[in-house]
Amino acid sequence: xxxxxxxxxxxxxxxxxxxxxxxxxxxxxxxxxxxxxxxxxxxxxxxxxxxxxxxxxxxxxxxxxxxxxxxxxxxxxxxxxxxxxxxxxxxxxxxxxxxxxxxxxxxxxxxxxxxxxxxxxxxxxxxxxxxxxxxxxxxxxxxxxxxxxxxxxxxxxxxxxxxxxxxxxxxxxxxxxxxxxxxxxxxxxxxxxxxxxxxxxxxxxxxxxxxxxxxxxxxxxxxxxxxxxxxxxxxxxxxxxxxxxxxxxxxxxxxxxxxxxxxxxxxxxxxxxxxxxxxxxxxxxxxxxxxxxxxxxxxxxxxxxxxxxxxxxxxxxxxxxxxxxxxxxxxxxxxxxxxxxxxxxxxxxxxxxxxxxxxxxxxxxxxxxxxxxxxxxxxxxxxxxxxxxxxxxxxxxxxxxxxxxxxxxxxxxxxxxxxxxxxxxxxxxxxxxxxxxxxxxx
Length: 442
What we know:
Elements: H1 13-19, H2 21-40, H3 45-61, H4 66-71, H5 75-95, H6 103-131, H7 137-165, H8 175-187, H9 207-222, H10 225-235, H11 243-247, H12 250-253, H13 260-286, H14 291-311, H15 316-345, H16 350-379, H17 381-404, E1 429-431, E2 438-440
Antiparallel strand pairs: 1-2
Helix pairs in contact: 1-7, 2-3, 2-5, 2-6, 2-7, 2-8, 2-13, 3-6, 3-16, 5-6, 5-8, 6-16, 7-8, 7-13, 7-15, 10-16, 13-15, 14-15, 14-17, 16-17
């Protein structure tokens, strides 16, 4: 695997924020804008949850095609291809009427558009993993997730505002909201100039040989204690942030007296800004503390916010304040997750290894979204929030129990034979967190 960048090339972490915006905006448009409009168009809360789950489906399985990004085109070429498809996809999503007879077509377009967004995310993750030195992973992870969640706010807030204000009875043009976001996606490609290119890994030999090399790298990582712990962290029902998706729906938001403009501003634009701020704050914390411990503490904090919202009066001011506090803590959890994963995956086969965990992490987002929608439908908003809080506490407890289980003996601290990285504190055999190569300490 040949080097792809000069060690002296400066890494502009803000560029990763811009490049990942379309990835977050695709999710935000479905989970906020379309979810809110569902009940406005006489669809149900569960119909909205189904659309959100359709968008999440490719992200659960994206690890299956991640090796293609690691073994074929450069990361920048993959980005340019996928951002065009994302722009077309979100325009198509906005053009389909939100009516029951078009529901299956809309689901299909949402799935296809989100497949394109997975390739966009993989390209950015590959660029980030290769360009980021170990000491900057917490901060760069914070900027990356700030762009992701800021994009969610952009797609949800701006998308909803345009969808509810621009079309008129004389000129109904629902596609405008998606087209406007698509143009923003394309404009953001300028940020590619500020990050170094990352060539495909394992380019020697045929594509099947390269794919085998990528899978081997992934398997060596998964077998380590850190890899298994990271996989468990991804599956637990904590820090999913899915209560926001339910709260964004018109029927639910109305219980707090929140109007469509309030939802567009709070769960859209302000949600993106506040969650991005949480990402940056957590990036500084993760630069000083173990990212896994930060993730667990944030899980308890998020559970506390959900429980406090459940027992507080259902007023518009409470909706605004708790929704924004919830968004801030969700942003912190995303950064802690990214910092932990970057520590585990190293550089080799970065897209495959990152997305193996990112795919797993979308599993609780998907199932918790459906669980919370069911809880709201059957028991109301208060117990929906209590369900979210309880799931978070259970997740933290299970993660803590697993982390305390005895593991393998530790390495003596000799350097990695490939890159010289200090292996102190790591298992005697596994994946070097710096270069991504396997090692076996004596």
